[in-house]
Specification:
about 325 residues; alpha/beta; 4-stranded antiparallel beta sheet; elongated; Rossmann fold; Alpha-Beta Plaits
Length: about 325
């Protein structure tokens, strides 16, 4: 039998309302097996709603959600899906080993407890009570619990929130080791550098719609891949938007920041105009792209921005 190449996750024309609030507006997502995908969006953009639907914790008002070709609830019950959510309190007096072993025993084909502990980097904490772990250690325990059932897909909701730099680094080492086994990873995060460094693909949602879908690099290039900044020195911003290559203009204090698709042409035009005081040229970050994509503006039809982005980087 050949390798199954069907998608791990499919959302088709999914809509979800909460009273007068439309949380999801007909989204269409497909996540391939073995893919690591970062889900980005502002608070209230629809990320948590989408994750709840994926895990079978809620039902869409319209459209269809499928995991491995079936209903989300069935995939979760069979152990094919693991989740690491923000909520949850430790069980008093239980040790790390006991808790991970117990959670694994509730699944049909669990990962060996020692393997789950090693994958999460907490083998040395096996005998410690879970209510005596530090914040970073507790977060790594949540990761061990999420993989205890040996899932093919893991869903991580803000997995490094409130962690320090060292704990965040240790967590992502664990996640990359899990993904390297050919498993599928979907994570939401407000740390955009994490998305850029750890995701094969980035999906941006805003106001319940998909506004970008592609690699971090393609998204950065599509919204203007380079930033050119210089001191305004009281000269104002008139005419900057019309410079060659410029796609957006922002003022920060007395400095102008130009997002441009052709930095050479933009710099030459600035030089010709004598506006090169403290000139700096730097590649745009994923955060710059995210802010551009989610700027307050009228919402676009579902899929329009994503299609435009794809066409612009071909």
């Amino acid at each position: 039998m050949g390798k199954d190449t069907s998608p791990a996750v499919q959302l088709r024309r999914v809509r979800k309302d909460f009273g007068p609030v439309r949380a999801l507006r007909g989204i269409n997502w497909e996540i391939r097996r073995g893919e690591s995908l970062a889900l980005l969006g502002r608070n209230g953009a629809g990320k948590s709603t989408a994750i709840s639907l994926l895990l079978g914790l809620d039902q869409p008002d319209a459209g269809e959600v499928r995991l491995f070709g079936g209903a989300p609830g069935a995939a979760v019950r069979s152990g094919r899906v693991g989740a690491m959510l923000q909520a949850g309190q430790p069980i008093p007096r239980a040790t790390v080993r006991e808790l991970v072993g117990f959670v694994g025993s509730t699944y049909p084909r669990p990962m060996a407890t020692a393997e789950a502990l090693a994958l999460a980097g907490i083998t040395e904490l096996a005998a410690r009570r879970v209510d005596r772990l530090s914040g970073g250690q507790a977060q790594r325990l949540r990761f061990a619990l999420a993989v205890a059932g040996n899932p093919e897909l893991i869903v991580l909701d803000e997995p490094t929130a409130a962690l320090d730099v060292e704990a965040r680094r240790a967590f992502w080492q664990s996640m990359r080791a899990y993904a390297a086994r050919g498993n599928t990873v979907l994570f939401s995060t407000h740390y955009l550098e994490e998305a850029d460094e750890n995701a094969d693909r980035v999906l941006v949602i805003d106001r319940g719609r998909t506004v970008a879908d592609g690699t971090g690099e393609s998204i950065k290039q599509a919204v203007g891949g380079t930033l050119v900044s210089f001191d305004l020195a009281g000269a104002g911003t008139q005419g900057l938007r019309a410079l060659p290559g410029v796609t957006a203009v922002e003022v920060r204090g007395d400095r102008a920041l130009l997002r441009t698709a052709d930095s050479d042409a933009t710099v030459l035009a600035l030089a010709a105009a004598g506006r090169i005081r403290r000139l700096e040229v730097a590649p745009a970050s994923l955060e710059d792209a995210f802010l551009s994509l989610t700027a307050d503006a009228p919402a676009e039809p579902t899929g329009h921005r994503a299609a435009t982005l794809e066409e612009s980087v071909r």
